[in-house]
Design brief:
With 142 residues, the chain is mainly alpha-helical. 70% of the residues lie in helices and 0% in strands. The longest helix has 26 residues.
Length: 142
């Protein structure tokens, strides 16, 4: 790979899938990494919210589930390039719903770092969905 080649998901046919699939795969992988760290912190550290509505264990479990769905989505996108676009929309959509629910709880009961985390990741997920929806479908997907 030369210095000017964009990163791409291993196994994704670059000619058949435009940059949308690679972009979303990379964003999903980044979000997974952040979720793993957040889940670990919520499950292992003594994290407390501002109110009793916040439960650190529940947050950690939810983050782990969302990370798992995104990993499954990435793997499915690699294994099934014909359906990668639809799979990406579904996985990112699930994560988006999870983050919206999490933001609702976090805004009422957690501290600013948790709120900032949700507010910074949520736009990445929404943009990923928009990119995939607007991407030209493969001939095989039509």
């Amino acid at each position: 790979m030369n210095a000017q080649s964009p990163p791409q998901l291993v196994g994704v046919d670059r000619e058949r899938h435009g940059p949308a699939i690679r972009y979303v795969g990379a964003v999903m992988a980044f979000v997974v990494a952040t979720l793993v760290v957040a889940s670990f912190i919520h499950l292992v550290a003594d994290v407390r919210g501002r109110t009793d509505l916040f439960d650190s264990t529940d947050a950690g479990i939810a983050e782990a589930i969302i990370a798992g769905v995104l990993v499954a989505g990435i793997v499915a996108m690699i294994r099934n390039p014909r359906r990668a676009r639809a799979i990406g929309i579904t996985a990112a959509g699930f994560a988006t719903v999870g983050f919206v629910v999490g933001l609702g709880i976090t805004a009422r009961s957690a501290h600013m770092p948790d709120i900032a985390y949700h507010l910074s990741i949520l736009p990445l997920l929404v943009v990923s969905i928009v990119v995939l929806v607007r991407a030209r479908p493969d001939e095989d997907e039509r």
